[in-house]
Amino acid sequence: MKHTELKNVFDTLEKAFTELSIDYYLIGALARQIWYERAQIKFRTTRDVDYAILVGSHQEYETVKQYLIKNENYLPIRENAFVLISPDGFQVDLLPFGEIESQGSVKIEGIGMTTIQISGMKEVYENGTEIVNLETGNTFKAATLIGIVLLKLVAYDDRPERRQKDATDIGNILVNFFDMHQDLIYSNHLDMFDEQERTLENISGIVLGREIKKIVLSNANLIDRSKRILIDHINFGEESIFTQLIAKETGKEIDLIIGYLRDILWGFENPSKPVD
Predict the structure, then answer these.
(1) How does pLDDT run across 107-127, given as a tens digit for each residue?
(2) Backbone torsions φ then ψ of 218, nearest 5 degrees
(3) Domain of life, per the record (predicted)?
(4) d(CA 82, CA 50)
């Protein structure tokens, strides 16, 4: 899918957020797609657009939805109160975070799906986004691949029965991580090239863990939760569906995947060291 197909969506959302003074960033499959395209890596595309929007109340969130419905001819759907359909048929998820949340979740009035878990969105907003310029002429903040991994790790933990694609996406990002983050690795993680023998996947896992830790550093609960998620899947071993899904996506043995999770955990617990 070309981003030009989404220009009307980008334009109307940018206009709405600007007029209503709403800060926001792009998340989900489209954000991941942007980084993959920049690295010229092919992966499945999406017709969905997901935005995390910073709002202070339920009224402010409803104002955003009603603006798009009344002024831009977006349509709500019965199945999910957080979703609108653009006039040209694209699904737009508007995921609120900020003061509207309560204990890591948001519940709004409506029918269908009215509650979402949003742990990590604030932390990614503060420490895990970059500005992207699209060929459509639009400029957005988008979650980095590291921020996306964090959000997917937490989302899978919230609803493993519904979020299996999150596991496969994490596996694919891990496989491609080194090639897509060489500047980061060589600039900030040269200690990975010490006397120890490490594969590129080992290095990728460790750096990913370190960078996730930087994003969640201000949230003690999220630090503990991220560690617990990794430890659980490591301990479950071959019985972990999460691990099985990553193995299937990457074509690697489960023992290797468990090793990569250990690398992520080790990196999470061990920040980079200066190299003489």
Answers:
(1) 988 888 899 999 999 999 999
(2) -85, -5
(3) Bacteria
(4) 10
